[in-house]
Amino acid sequence: MAERAANLGVILGSPTERTFEIMRTAHFGLKTTAILAVLGLSLTACGGNATKTGAAQAAADPETPVEGGTFTFAEVTPINNWQTQAARFYEKANVLNSVLDRLTYYDVEAGKLVGWIASEFEANEDQTEFTFTIRDGVTFSDGSTLDAEAVKLNLDALGKGIKSAQIAPNVDFAAYKSAEVVGDNKVKVTLKRPDANFLRSTSSVTAGLVSPKTLELDNAAQSSISKIVGSGPFVFESEKPDEEVVFSSRDDYAWAPETAPNQGDAYLDTLVIKYLPEVASRAGAAQSGQVDLVRGLQPVDEQVLASSGGKVYAAEGVDLTTNHAAVRIGSGKLEDVKVRQALQVAIDRQAIKDTVLSDSYVISGSILNHKAPGFVDLSAELAYNPEKAKQLLDEAGWKPGADGIREKDGKKLEVTVSTSNNSVVIKPAFELIEQQWREIGVQLINRAADNTFLTNALVDDKVEFYGTRQFAYGGLGPVYAPANNNQTLRADPELNKLFTKEQSATTDEEHLKLVEEEQRALVLDKALTLVLWDEVQVYGANSSANVEFTSGTAPIFQGAWKSEG
């Protein structure tokens, strides 16, 4: 355990020696077929199985997990729709990660995709057929068997949706055609077109496996956490709407990813999810022991919590895009690529890091996070250069007005950004960008963290920027390709040709080259995304809590434990 902690990049020390205790994320690894190396698919894992023990032994060895106890996790907002394919938000994914298993798992430390419910998986050369061998002995919490037939039914629901329940297909399964049970507990998936990212999509929480009986329910029932039956380590126990959800551990759980430190059932007896929307209260709740873990810690609270003996976990979002401002050109003000490129280099990212963020955050080098497969570092081209920005705006015909704000054809270069309030740093970050852009003659109207404004802005292409980050299990194509994608609200023919080529890649070299081209096109050539910082979710914990995280920043409660009670 001590060696594994070192590999996770833990900074340890007493409050007087260190002001931070940041535990970087990583996890699980499994044996995988040679085809994954060809595709460049990668994930990470932690090695070594943790031995279950009691509190007495834990006192002698603080690195040894303790059996039993109740673990309380504070989320940001309540959830009223738990339907699996709708789990593209942290509040849902962080809980469903402990209720639903997936076919595969992305192991960040190992940098590869590994098996989970599928003990083996392989693809044909042109990436149109994928075969999964299903583990024996896996059951759903209602006692039914998670076999090849159950997997086929789930894949059909993911790939085709469920019309009778008005459930849409999973966007990452857009190439899906059919699945059939073949051989001894095997499932073969056939795609309508090549998709080199399909295997990666099967590791997503939105591809969580539910019981066949759950798939028969209507949309309302599938949206209820009390009705969802999975094969995960925790099972629904009770709920107080908008207040808390309680889960109990499954004693018979024995099919974690192969390299998971804990190969058996959860150390914990009970998992309680509470809701704590007040940002200023989160660090105090963890410090006082009111909760064991809380998501959404403010940078100013990180040092306070750590110096008082608490823990700060920076869970890296390898499965997501970076935090960025997606560009919409409906107003016409950003239609000229030179304007977009000017705004890209008019962002002083280091100043944002120094002023608004903390050491938990890493400045973006691309639309992909630094540890994501295929990441290419564009930092040099993204360097702060206000003089170049002014030159590009001049070339685009935007000239400074009497008040310093640029004008063209009677319009001022005023642009608006909209975001949700899910990130505690998003509003102050755009406040600083507002100041930086004012220096080059651009007025930013900052509606970041205004959820009321976001409701309409999300689908309004005249609101120039949407600040966000997105899960990208199926690659960048599903995020940006559809005409109704919620990033740019438009389809770009040149980008879509590139996405199609990337999905059809059959060698590692070709795949990585095309992933690099996609990043350069999105960030530099077309500047349809203004990248800011790598996605990270910052959690605060009391001194007793021990937890690791997935590549999607979800807490792994199956391996979590408390050193006291």
TrEMBL record:
Pfam families: SBP_bac_5. Residues 112-468 form the Solute-binding protein family domain. SUPFAM superfamilies: Periplasmic binding protein-like II. CDD domains: PBP2_NikA_DppA_OppA_like_15. InterPro entries: Peptide/Ni-bd, SBP_5, SBP_5_dom. This is Dipeptide/oligopeptide ABC transporter, substrate-binding protein. It comes from Glutamicibacter arilaitensis (strain DSM 16368 / CIP 108037 / IAM 15318 / JCM 13566 / NCIMB 14258 / Re117) (Arthrobacter arilaitensis).
